[in-house]
Amino acid sequence: MQLDEELRHEVTPKNILMIGPTGVGKTEIARRLAKLANAPFIKVEATKFTEVGYVGKEVDSIIRDLTDAAVKMVRVQAIEKNRYRAEELAEERILDVLIPPAKNNWGQAEQQQEPSAARQTFRKKLREGQLDDKEIEINLAAAPMGVEIMAPPGMEEMTSQLQSMFQKPGRSETENRVS
Questions:
Q1: Number of domains in the chain
Q2: Both 128 and 79 in a single domain?
Q3: For 34-73, how does the pLDDT look when each residue is reduced to its tens digit (9 = 90+)?
């Protein structure tokens, strides 16, 4: 039974098999295609699949590597997506330390519609790098970040590896940054 011509392109494998001697650029072409397709990339040697006595544990490591690459790629995309807003917020935090907002009668910071002239002046100096030699201290509160993963029996090791992959390394609850 043959498929209609319209459906045939949906079913046909979308893989690329590149054959050639070492050093001609097969891996680099594949890496660039993956980047263009916005897909994670890992390199797997074909000898793992052609050896006698091939064991499924190799597949676990391949899946783990691919998952690591995908998570790293998503993190980089999220960082790039939020970079502009994060820079704006960081600039506001620095300006709050340099020029604290005006307080109302109850000691709370007032919401101003227009930034003060002094704040605008300091913002300009900050952007031009004129304040780079100044040191300020800012308290950072890190929100606890974690992912809880339930594992089927016998898969506890892979679950702990996935959990450690999703955790943010090297952050304490509150830390002081001086810059």
A1: 2
A2: no
A3: 888 888 887 777 666 666 655 666 677 777 888 888 888 8
Question: Do 69 and 115 have their domain in common?
Answer: no
Q: How many CB atoms sit inside 10 A of residue 122's CB?
A: 19
- Does residue 51 form part of some domain? yes
pLDDT tens readout for residues 77-124: 889 999 999 888 888 888 888 887 766 666 565 566 666 888 888 889
pTM given for the model: 0.44
Q: Please, where are the H alpha helices in 1-155?
A: 5-11, 26-36, 47-50, 57-98, 117-128
Report the alpha-carbon distance of residue 51 to residue 60 in Å, rounded: 17
Residue that is written with structure tokens 């002081």 in the block: 176
CB 172 within 8 A of CB 143: no
Which of 134, 125, 139, 124 lies closest to 173 in space, CA to CA? Answer: 139
Does one domain contain both 77 and 104?
no
